[in-house]
Write a structure and sequence with these properties.
Layout lengths: L18 H13 L6 H14 L5 E5 L2 H11 L7 E5 L4 H9 L3 E5 L10 H7 L4 E4 L11 H11 L2 E5 L7 E2 L2 E2 L7 E5 L12 E5 L2 H11 L7 H6 L20 H32 L4 E2 L16 E4 L7 H10 L15 H6 L8 H9 E3 L8 H15 L1
Parallel strand pairs: 2-3, 2-4, 4-5, 5-8
Antiparallel strand pairs: 1-9, 6-7, 8-9, 10-11, 11-12
This protein binds pyridoxal-5'-phosphate.
């Protein structure tokens, strides 16, 4: 075997862009329509079809963060409102609540799935609570039956942060088709499909869809493509609200259309890699990530392991030892309650979030991406055996 220093660095994640994507983008560049136009519409339709239609509308945006912001705005979240968010998430989930002058109320996660704990949601509800934002951590669905029941009971809105959850199912239904108000997917470079930067908000409520469409583009009553193609004079539009600039470009949508077609193969590859990690890391002092319940789909956006209590090396040492062997890893996430802004603004202490905090201190995310070979993965597995056994 070659000394590890001579092997190429294995990143934690890497996009899988083929010739078809390059051709699709080149074709769009040659078409003369670069901003939001025919490709963005086609991507929205294809996305709706992928999720199975059923009255769903898809609104393409330039990031999931934008989509989450639009969702809360359309739901009327504003100053004085509280929105329940898991502490174990990316800051975007909570920051969009602040965009609207409302307050995220951080709650702890379930120690097995690392998803938001429905009991913690219940305990956090106050008269100011307006919405819940479950995050399907790593690509495993939250307990949506319990969360939707709590929401119904207390008259709360539900916006799913599905940045990791394409495709994920809960009790046989794709995330995006559940009974929440809005579900938002991310197409950031390392997500399960990518447009470089991009996202999609889906909803079954036509009023929410309409509001998100208008607010996505400056609060204008008509978008540029509509003005270009319809019979009403092209110059005419009305501004009905101070909106945002959140539209997805046609070049990004062209990329997304090809990626969406490849999603079934991407999923298969991720499932294959996750199953290999499961089988070959089983003997080590690691807590392996939870599987989806029987019959459900885990998107395997992330493969997060935790050092078992009593492991003789710490998390930081494992990350360093893997890095020394040319293997990239990451940590998802330092919980929000540990970040200065959230901690100080809301006077948060780690003891309020024992599960997320303990998980954080022992977790690392192993390389998992579709372009990774079994041989690449064997390097990670061998290195972990070497470091931990
Ligand atoms: C990636 C991510 C986001 C943000 O997605 P963008 O498309 O980069 O805005 C939000 N929430 C979670 C949990 C994420 O992982």
């Amino acid at each position: 075997m070659l000394p590890s220093e001579t092997l190429p660095f294995l990143p934690f994640a890497q996009p899988d862009i083929g010739e078809a994507e390059i051709q699709a983008v080149a074709q769009t560049l040659r078409s003369g329509w670069l901003s939001t136009g025919p490709k963005a519409r086609e991507f929205e339709q294809a996305f709706t079809n992928y999720l199975g239609g059923n009255g769903l509308q898809s609104i393409a945006v330039n990031s999931a963060t934008a989509g989450l912001h639009l969702a809360l705005e359309a739901l009327g979240i504003g100053p004085g409102d509280e929105v329940i968010v898991p502490t174990l998430t990316f800051t975007a989930t909570a920051e969009v609540v602040r965009y609207l002058g409302a307050d995220p109320v951080l709650v702890d996660v379930d120690p097995v799935t690392l998803n938001i704990d429905p009991e913690a949601i219940r305990a956090a509800i106050t008269p100011l609570t307006k919405a819940i934002m479950p995050v399907h951590y790593g690509g495993l669905a939250c307990r949506m039956d319990a969360i939707l029941a709590i929401a119904r009971e207390h008259g709360l809105k539900v916006v799913e942060d599905a940045a990791h959850a394409l495709p994920t199912t809960w009790q046989g239904q794709l995330v995006g088709q559940l009974a929440s108000d809005v579900t938002v997917f991310s197409f950031y470079a390392n997500k399960t499909i990518t447009t470089g930067e991009g996202g999609m908000a889906v909803t079954r409520d036509p009023r929410l869809a309409e509001r998100m469409r208008v607010m996505r583009l400056h609060g204008m009553s008509r978008d540029a493509f509509d003005r270009f193609t319809s019979k009403t004079p092209a110059w005419y539009y009305e501004v009905v609200a101070p909106g945002f600039k959140y539209n997805l470009t046609d070049t990004a949508a062209a990329l997304g259309l090809v990626q969406l077609q490849r999603l079934p193969q991407f999923l298969e590859r991720r499932q294959h890699l996750a199953a290999r990690y499961h089988a070959q890391l089983a003997g080590l002092p690691l807590v392996l990530p939870a599987n989806a319940p029987a019959g459900d789909v885990h998107a395997w956006h992330l493969y997060v392991v935790r050092l078992a209590p009593g492991a003789r090396v710490g998390r930081d040492e494992v990350i360093q030892a893997l890095s020394n062997r040319g293997i990239g890893t990451s940590v998802h996430y330092m919980p929000l309650h540990r970040h200065p802004y959230w901690r100080d603004r809301y006077q948060l202490r780690a003891e309020q979030f024992p599960q997320a905090d303990a998980a954080y201190q022992s977790m690392l995310s192993l390389p998992l991406f579709t372009a990774m070979t079994d041989a690449d993965q064997d390097r990670v597995i061998a290195a972990l055996h070497d470091i931990l056994a």
